[in-house]
Amino acid sequence: GAGVSQSPSNKVTEKGKDVELRCDPISGHTALYWYRQSLGQGLEFLIYFQGNSAPDKSGLPSDRFSAERTGGSVSTLTIQRTQQEDSAVYLCASSLSPTRNEQFFGPGTRLTVL
Amino acid sequence: AQRVTQPEKLLSVFKGAPVELKCNYSYSGSPELFWYVQYSRQRLQLLLRHISRESIKGFTADLNKGETSFHLKKPFAQEEDSAMYYCALKKGETSGSRLTFGEGTQLTVNP
Predict the structure, then answer these.
(1) Residue B90 contacts A where some CB pair is shorter than 8 Å
(2) Fold for domain B3-110?
(3) Residue B95 has pLDDT above 60, yes or no
(4) Which sequence spans correspond to the domains of chain A?
(5) Which of B32, B49, B97 lies closest to A95 in CB terms?
(6) Which of A5, A38, A43 to mutate to test the interface with B (most CBs of B within 10 A)?
(7) Topology of domain A5-108, per CATH?
(8) A42–B103 C-beta distance less than 8 A
(9) Local structure of residue A84 (DSSP, 8 states)
(10) Nearest residue in chain A measured CA to CA from B101
(11) A89: which strand partners?
């Protein structure tokens, strides 16, 4: 079956603009995660959704970042008033459940803020 | 807070040589440890996890709780092993499922 998909694959925006990044998890996966991969750094956890529970937002770097997951499936990560330091690859992953820990990653969205 | 350290950003070996990618962690509980790999122009994927105690593509990793390490080893490296390798930690089965990643090691296997 299809893996995790993300769109767009690349996004170039101007400083101060808002962007939306989309993630389609694997069908039936209840857990969804967003990570950020910045140049020269590892993967940084951003936010985690599990079913209908309140999301774990502890990794969001500022209140300019928000995410939602509609209908327990598709998720959107929104960055408001983008800054140059937001430039990174944003990765989405999903897993069957929190205890079935293999996280399947999408191809990522490369965000460039000019 | 938990932390994962991969001391080598770059590692270069020759084909057929042994390779060891180092991973150390700090966490007071009982973690689950993973190695993820990202080949060129491919997405990040799970290589192995410590609870499985299996060998994948000739790689093994043993969790050493005394030394808080989870080093990845392969006795004879192949050119196709060239990739970015990430060590990751999860705070045990019953905890929230987020992974804490190290900064990664870029492995190059030369012919």
Answers:
(1) yes
(2) Immunoglobulin-like (2.60.40)
(3) no
(4) 5-108
(5) B97
(6) A43
(7) Immunoglobulin-like (2.60.40)
(8) yes
(9) G
(10) A43
(11) A37, A110
